[in-house]
Amino acid sequence: MAADLSQIVKAYDVRGVVPDQWDEALAELFGAAFVRVTDATAVVTGHDMRPSSPGLSAAFARGAAGQGADVTEIGLCSTDQLYYASGALNLPGAMFTASHNPARYNGIKLCRAGAAPVGQDTGLADIRALVEEWSDTGAPQKAGTTGTVTRRDTLEDYAAHLRSLVDLTGIRPLKVVVDAGNGMGGHTVPTVLAGLPLTLVPMYFELDGTFPNHEANPLDPANLVDLQKRVREEGADLGLAFDGDADRCFVVDERGEPVSPSAVTALVASRELARNGGTGTVIHNLITSRSVPEVVRENGGTPERTRVGHSFIKAEMARTGAIFGGEHSAHYYFRDFWNADTGMLAALHVLAALGEQQGTLSALVDQYDRYAGSGEINSTVDDQAARLAAIRAAYDGREGVTLDDLDGLTVSAADWWFNVRPSNTEPLLRLNAEARDEATMIRIRDEALALIRQ
């Protein structure tokens, strides 16, 4: 009986519990199917520090080689390092990671040559269908020569490429605390930051996929507490926190206060626009702060609003030729990084911006953090559509209020807005609200929550 992969093949990647939901035998089939669907003659693979990652990655390589593709294994790497390899080598790629998920999980992030994303509509559904078809019999070997499997270290080249995209030559000495969360930041940060005038205070740099100190998910405020405390104790200029596969970076200022990813997006956007002669398109999703399009326009750029999610961001980056894109979740996308996301490059921009002047990070980001935001608030509901309809009815026709349906429902007025989006996988509605001042934000937030939860 063919395997049912509906629980592990998600919209943009493969992810599930090992070995309960998937194992090396399935990983080998995924490797074979990936080559068949992409028609690749060569692929590149990498993996994070989870105990199951090396075995899964090696099995995928066997499957790919069995279909005649030559495999370049770059071994331990961050997800953006795998994207670098896919772009620089112009090869389809597979990264073995479950990002910030607990230790028992693992997954595969797939891309075509040049780090172009693979999702349900761009090959992942076809890959799943082949794996299910072959799960009883195994993948048929391709007639002819089996592909080769070779190792290649790309860490130094990846670091050099990132540093070539940000001018760090004039920065002053800075003290930086970095919390790698026992994830891949512990592998990449020392090489990327080598040679810069930085005093680096490392936290949890030991690669350990069991995450003994805290989850490698800086989006949860509980996982920033250790970093915030250490920044204050050290009198550091800033702190950086990476998630498990080190493709996202969160920033805290010299007071240990989190810097909004929207403020980081605005800061990096202003620098990328300057780097491109004061012109260019910048993508932002619809729940980033209004600060972002304002700063983009002030710096000569064109803001482009899109739905939440990396597949939408990357598609708009490609369609518009955008120079940069940012999300509220601390994913940052760069045209000069094959439209892929790299938190490390965003971190270099923050270091450069801070190091080029004498003030504090909190003072620097004040100009980019202009509104009061609620953050994302999740509510369990019985009927997502009915609750959204109730919100629409409450605001439709109000003077000065506009509604739009780009992603969920966004309700906007002159000095506030909120968005309510349904989860695709759980009976949740996600609320994000923002206003010119804290009191207005609280009023709008509570009004929307009352409608969601009534």
UniProtKB/TrEMBL annotation:
Keywords assigned by UniProt? Isomerase, Magnesium, Metal-binding, Phosphoprotein
Q: Which NCBIfam families match?
A: PRK09542.1 (NF007088)
UniProt lists the family membership as follows:
Belongs to the phosphohexose mutase family.
InterPro entries in alphabetical order: A-D-PHexomutase_a/b/a-I (IPR005844), A-D-PHexomutase_a/b/a-I/II/III (IPR016055), A-D-PHexomutase_a/b/a-II (IPR005845), A-D-PHexomutase_a/b/a-III (IPR005846), A-D-PHexomutase_C (IPR005843), A-D-PHexomutase_C_sf (IPR036900), Alpha-D-phosphohexomutase_SF (IPR005841)
Native species of this protein? Streptomyces cellulosae
Q: Please list the cofactors this protein needs.
A: Mg(2+)
List the protein's name: Phosphomannomutase/phosphoglucomutase
Q: What is the lineage of its organism?
A: Bacteria, Bacillati, Actinomycetota, Actinomycetes, Kitasatosporales
Span of domain Alpha-D-phosphohexomutase C-terminal: 376-448
Q: Where is the Alpha-D-phosphohexomutase alpha/beta/alpha domain?
A: 7-134, 156-256, 264-371
